[in-house]
Specification:
Length: about 325
């Protein structure tokens, strides 16, 4: 049965993404995805999608490597924040409170069992559009860009993990997110695990990292308005030389329509649309898929691309060779 603590997290609040090709990555997110740059501080650009009420969701940071920095999650209230911080501290994974920063108030920093850096906060800065960005309707955060992929909002994040079970148990037992679906491998371990905060079928996902590394990033996803937008996104990426890894197609697990690309810095980005599908049952039982069911491929039968299990960021040594061999079936 769902309990109060299952509703302590509101949504993914922001992600820091590292890129060794800052200018090209900025072009991808700002010009191709139609995000808006709201701040530039040091080596970082802060970017937002048009239907996001907060100041920003993507902190793009120039770096010698790629991968994910800190992911921020918004709590649903100050009480919820305090409950989750107490649980994180009890689990021994807390780093401590951080002062307010761009877009968010005081936050509590921690890491998951796989070493991914995270933060949780409640106080936030609501975006106030200027004359150039004021929407026609007052119930919308900012003006509809109507260009490029036109990403509406950030939807979810998917991490690679050296131990999916440990990471998932943390999200189930400490963060109190509810499981929606999972893949159980023949050896009993989980190969992937999906968690939801509310009625959207997932917000945080962990997948098995076949390289055995800790703390790597698989992808985050933007939600465009419609399935048609994802088909259009594929054409736009093709036209702009953005590597299309997989899709457009429909997932079997959680049934989202998807497209995966690698942005110029090498990080995987997804465009995903769940259409009208929601998990309305607060006690929806977790759906478990066997290794054999998973091996059947996606919803309409297409097999999962081999690089899905090898490509992650930051790159491991010989990442390109590993990906190439995976595609060649070695
Ligand atoms: Fe995804």
């Amino acid at each position: 049965m769902a309990v109060t603590e299952n509703f302590d997290l509101a949504h993914i609040g922001g992600v820091e993404l590292f890129t060794p090709k800052f200018d090209e990555s900025l072009h991808f997110f700002r010009d191709i995805c139609a995000m808006r740059e709201v701040a530039r501080i040091g080596d970082s650009s802060y970017l937002r999608c048009w239907d996001e009420y907060q100041l920003y969701t993507l902190k793009l940071t120039a770096s010698h490597t790629n991968g994910v920095g800190r992911t921020l999650f918004r709590a649903t209230s100050e009480d919820a924040l305090q409950r989750r911080v107490a649980a994180i501290e009890a689990a021994g994974l807390g780093h401590g409170w951080r002062d307010p920063e761009v877009g968010v108030g005081r936050s509590y920093e921690f890491e998951d069992p796989d070493g991914h850096l995270m933060g949780i906060y409640y106080d936030t800065e609501h975006y106030v559009p200027d004359d150039d960005d004021r929407p026609a309707l007052k119930n919308q955060a900012s003006a509809y860009p109507g260009r490029g992929i036109n990403a509406r909002r950030m939807d979810h994040i998917n991490y690679l993990a050296s131990d999916v079970n440990k990471a998932g148990e943390f999200w189930r037992d400490v963060m109190f997110a509810r499981e929606s679906e999972r893949v159980r491998l023949d050896d009993g371990r989980y190969g992937a695990w999906w968690f939801r905060f509310h009625q959207k079928s997932y917000d945080v996902v962990y997948s098995d990292d076949w390289t055995g590394e800790r703390g790597r990033f698989h992808h985050f996803a933007f939600a465009p308005d419609s399935r048609e937008d994802i088909l259009k996104a594929a054409d736009i990426c093709l036209e702009n030389g953005i590597y299309i890894e997989y899709g457009p197609y429909k997932h079997a697990i959680n049934q989202t329509f998807f497209l995966y690309v690698w942005e110029p810095g090498g990080n995987r980005i997804e465009f995903a649309n769940a259409q009208a599908r929601l998990l309305l049952d607060p006690d929806w039982p977790v759906v478990e898929w066997s290794q054999a069911e998973r091996a059947k491929g996606q919803a309409w039968g297409m097999k999962t691309v081999a690089t899905f299990h090898t490509h992650g960021t930051p790159f491991v040594a010989n990442q390109e060779e590993i990906d190439r061999k995976a595609l060649e079936g070695h």
